[in-house]
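Researcher: For the record, we're logging two predictions in this thread. I'll number them. Prediction 1 follows.
Model: Prediction 1, sequence and structure:
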Amino acid sequence: MAQRFPTVAVFGLGTTGRHLVDALVRGGRRVIAVERDEPALRRGRAGVAAPESAVEFTTDPAAAARADLVVEAVPERLETKRRLLARAHADCPPETVFATTTTGLAVTEIAVGSGRTDRTVGLHLFPLGPDRERPAVEVVGTPLTADAVLADVRELVRDLGRIPVRVADRPGFVGGALTMAYLNNAVAMYERRYASRDSIDTAMTLGCGLPMGPLAQLDAMGLDTARDSLEALYERTGDPRYAPAPTLAHMVTAGLLGVKAGRGFYEYGAGGAARGGATDGLGEPVPARAVRRIGVVGSGTMAVGIAEVCARSGYPTVLVARSEIRAKEATAAVERSLERGVRRGKLAPELLTEAMGRLTAGCELQALGACDLVVEAVAEDIGVKRAVFADLDRECAPGAVLATSTSSLPVIECAMATRRPEDVIGMHFFNPAPVMRLVEVVHTVLTSKEALGTAHAVAAALGKRAVDCPDRAGFIVNALLFPYLNSAVAMLEEGWATADDIDTVMAAGQGYPMGPLRLLDVIGLDVSLAIQRTLHGTFRDPALTPARHLRRLVEAGHLGRKGGRGLHLHER
């Protein structure tokens, strides 16, 4: 079979254009790379990894007349793209196919302006995703695109070792619509000084396993490119989620464009490496109380995981469950987890024995009287948690720090159930606690510096990375993660794409550990709905209203992987 599109012209050698040139050359294509002037051509040429013998670099747009496929990768401005393709339309034979790499603009509008409505497609690439065996590319058709053209472009994408995902010409498609709202939300969080730059990026990389934090991703993308994409999406939708955060416009005006300018949210040295270490902790020495013994209240997955981490890290650990039976089950669960570590060669047998020797379990809260730090990990119900904290206030020694592992409930509610609110703090561990390195340390307006310092010191001793944030619904991770997840459910409900295609775009495109809908199934749709309701109830933002499809699935008892059915079907 003849090779589809043996010669491809690429206009624009920014991040996306360079990425595309390299991918095409690896796929055996001859590439004509076109830039607007010699300085831009030199800069773009320097960033292309492909051998020069496989690429013709030029500033002459008429060179595209020799191409079978013309791809524009120029800045996100409708008239710029339309003028470029209209010029190519005049230069190129009728059979030449056009493609746009837009994120926020309508492919249909670009196609109409090009003069080739039936031979223009969208190619939405993810040049910043980590190296993967088969990354995804969104192939965007319009109501006017010829089926044969779409088929040929999808075959080209496959030939380049990528996964073509056909999507409709909706604002942002799948990847742009979900990603740009998430990135803009992260800038707003930073702008309001709710969390530091490093805390935000550390939280999302360690808490969610993302390949890059949102602010670092914006720097890599280019803050001007991000702003332009957001403005295009906002103009098309009127959705406030896409109204560019003022900080973006301010930084772009100041020339702080990210990696390509040497400075954005971070500063960059030679080769685009970020300068300076992370400062996601407290930033300055804070007094901490001595912690010799740790208590854990609860017997579920999180409580068991926290108890294991504490015992493995050398702390005498007391676990208190609702009953002796649950206490014994929790102890057995810790031992099974440690045994798995031994079988996999990650834990020496003697360390298992030592850890189990440090762990005691029972059902009496009085056993926590000698603990210097107690972590509550019971059901995510504020009434239940307040009752536990009232009991801990009576049983624990003065000066003991009391922590809640809540992922979304107000820490201050737990604090006010005690007579020592200054000693109450949030320590949000991530599941599975023995594996996940992040702990969100959440302080209320009443938390003392000593309690805050103690939580950070213990997190470090447990081998965790602590990020500090105030007591606000969702803290950092859930406040950024769940609006993104909720939007993906709404996208599915509105018929943007199938569940598998949405997940493929975000996992194989952006490089996320799993797609948003599969992640919701793993978390549990009931748990996810409760968190989304908390976010909506706190901020009263219509955009945070739980997706109707999510509510209906929970009402029907389809709770995700644990029930065998949710947004996907799961084998039980």
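Researcher: Logged. Prediction 2.
Model: Prediction 2, sequence and structure:
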Amino acid sequence: MSVPGEKDDRPLYERFGLRIARRGYDRDQVEAYLTRLLAGAPPVGVAGFDLVRRGYERGRVDEVIARLHREAGPGDQS
């Protein structure tokens, strides 16, 4: 776990415990979304990802995104 305020250089899948599922969210799309969210530029609207073979486990991705939105505080999260 990283220290608050310290840059975490681990890959996103490792940093957030994202696992590969037989069918899951497209990994490139998820990582692009998380990168924008962490940079302080959350994408507008609801997150939507293609379902693909060997993608990230859907439930875990949903948990991570919900947590990051909560931690970002109030604002437009529609």
